[in-house]
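#struct-help
A.M.: can someone run this one for me? Single chain, 180 residues.
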Amino acid sequence: GAGPGNGRFWGMTCGDPDAPGFYPQYVLTGADGCYFFGSKIQANSSLELDEIPTDVNGNYIITVSLAAGIDVANPLVQSQFQTGDYFELIVNEILIERWEGTSAGGGQPMTPRIGNTSQILTPNFEDFSFNLTSIIGAVSDIEIEFQANTNTANKYIGIEGLSLYGSGGFSVVTGSHKKR
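D.P.: on it. Structure tokens below:
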């Protein structure tokens, strides 16, 4: 929900009474429904999902639908993040991917800095897939965490969906999230 501090928010686009004053107008587009988003995200803010039990012999691929943008009308400025703005995907306390702004004054999209993807974060939701088994090895459970930081109220990060695929077929992530 709202806070701490003026202009900060980290929550859902539906069912969250604090959300209406924080909705982005121009960015975080292309979602099929509700999504989780943050604005002016305090340094090291995180979202954790409850542990998901797995088959230790399974091969697991995680797919997340992500977007990041600056909420202004001009599309040429919507991806001008600066150093210090970042978004991380962490699994079992291992950093899988980190996107961050690369310009001290702003001017570049959030680009991958650590990990295996070459995709930048755009103002429109896009899917990112990672083979967790090849990155971290066999696991008996999976705990997913997102960490982020943005320094102004018009910078948004969104998480529309998360899927976990196992070698035995498709599995939907269940459970709750814990904000801290």
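A.M.: thanks! The helical segments are 132-136.
D.P.: also worth noting: The chain has a mean pLDDT of 85.
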